[in-house]
Amino acid sequence: MVINLAMHNKGALKKEDKIVSKLGMIYIHIPITWKAPEVDRLELFLKILESLEKENKKIFIHCIKNYRASVFMHIYKKFVWGKDTKFIAPAEYKPNKTWKKILNMDLNSKRN
Known about the structure:
Blueprint: E1 2-4, H1 16-22, E2 27-29, H2 39-54, E3 60-62, H3 67-79, H4 97-104, H5 108-111
Parallel strand pairs: 1-2, 1-3
């Protein structure tokens, strides 16, 4: 199973969906804009990942530079697993104001 959080633009792997499918894996694309990440797509990601985890599926989550994936996985661990762990991302990634807001949002009220 592959979940791609990147937009289809410069730097993205062309025809990734076809490549992944040919290899016998399921491909899910949840495009997340960099400048204005959509909370509804984050919630969709959380629901999909939670469902797949219950089925004990092996999942590879990625984006172009692993920034979106790092933020979304941190939020998943926090709100689904209930673990407020240290944020882990590539060393060069420094979340801007928009992404800090995403990292610090409280989804508990929306998820209950």
